[in-house]
Amino acid sequence: MATFNRRGYKKSKSERAQKGDKSQTAEVFESLDSTANKSEQWILKNQNVIFIGIAVISISVISYLGYERFISEPNEKIGNKRA
Prior knowledge:
Elements: H1 13-19, H2 24-45, H3 47-82
């Protein structure tokens, strides 16, 4: 079984945390966290409006497709038979 020798020494995470140093990555994650919280709050505040908008769009698309399929196509077939 192969072994490896450690060449460098990394400080443990607990030592870094005790010093109170904030890494750049931690700052980025904190800013992403705050942005996510703001987005969640906005979505919760406007949840009903969002769902109503989605429902209106869905009903519109389904109505259009239903009209094309069940009204327009049969009328075209009847018109082609008469001609």
